Amino acid sequence: PPPRPRVPTTTGLNRAENDSAHDEQGFETMPGQSAALRPAAPPLDGPPLTLDDAKQRLTRVMRDIERAADAMQELRASGATVFDDLSELTGRMLNDNEFNFLLVYAYQAWFALVPFGVRAPTLDYRAMEADFLAVFERLRKCDPATTEVFPRVQHDCRQPDLLDALARLLVGGAKRAPKELAPSRESTLVMVVALKALIDELDRALRRP
User: Fold this and answer.
1) Of 22, 63, 159, 209, which residue is the least packed, with the fewest Cβ within 10 Å?
2) Which of 61, 53, 56, 195 is nearest to 116 (CA)?
3) DSSP at 112
4) pLDDT tens-place string over residues 102-152
5) Distance between CA 99 and CA 134 in Å, rounded?
6) CA atoms of 99 and 83, how far apart (whole Å)
7) In contact, 109 and 202? CB cutoff 8 Å
């Protein structure tokens, strides 16, 4: 696919700037710090997040990240490949506006599991791609006009309640977006499936020894 812009244009996160950012575990963002010098991301253990936990983490992300550009800067500084991975994963299925819309929710997914100030976990793009394609294979067998769609997307998700909470935010955001920026129903589904692939691979990466 052709290169896409890397800065989201629809965020709803316009707040006053702050001099520094801290996560709840005490990590501090240091712009320009080499990713290799950062501490590793803390591992995940135990069961998946509950819906309440997922909502609390997403609320904290939206509270702590004052501008979309701050999230983008932190992700680049951490060595994250998430935006390139999502660009390759969705290809021509999303136009530029829709891809930028997806990025807003992608960084919320990321920071719900990965704190600021750490080295990005390494994502396995091939695993993400396999996950993405497997969901569409399931969806091909169901009627998109029925309520079967989301359960088939959510099936076997490693963090089902985080995906549920993010999907609700994404769909709500799509409904509120200006007409010229609002993603289509089909594109919204692509975004949710892409978020599942990202969340699953993040969960796997953070549990690897």
Assistant:
1) 209
2) 61
3) H
4) 999 999 999 999 999 999 999 999 999 999 999 998 888 777 666 578 888
5) 21
6) 10
7) yes
